[in-house]
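TASK: fixed-backbone design
INPUT:
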């Protein structure tokens, strides 16, 4: 089942598709939703043919390394393997970083120190 909604919002005179809610079930359901958002946006904005939705996954300090690894694998699946979005995995604690695989062909790493 899918418990998600694609909403169109207006920002600075441009429409934007926003996915809200949760997706439960097959990962293909989320891929299909992301591709639908991409197609709708590109149809409305032909001047921006390379646009893709960005999925941001924020890993809080209470997350386990196993959860961080699962999020990384799923985000790489969405962003690289299916090409349905751009992905950003934000880890709030450095202990989570040790749980991910360094895979330069499928990801770019950026380490930001505490401010």
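OUTPUT:
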């Amino acid at each position: 089942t899918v418990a998600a909604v694609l909403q169109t919002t207006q920002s600075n005179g441009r429409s934007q598709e926003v996915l809200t809610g949760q997706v439960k079930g097959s990962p293909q359901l989320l891929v299909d939703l992301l591709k639908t958002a991409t197609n709708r946006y590109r149809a409305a904005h032909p001047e921006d043919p390379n646009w893709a939705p960005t999925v941001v996954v924020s890993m809080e300090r209470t997350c386990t390394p196993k959860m961080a690894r699962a999020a990384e694998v799923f985000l790489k699946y969405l962003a690289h393997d299916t090409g349905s979005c751009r992905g950003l995995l934000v880890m709030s604690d450095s202990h989570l970083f040790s749980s991910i695989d360094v895979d330069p062909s499928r990801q770019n790493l950026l380490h930001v120190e505490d401010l």
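COMMENT: The longest strand covers residues 2-11.
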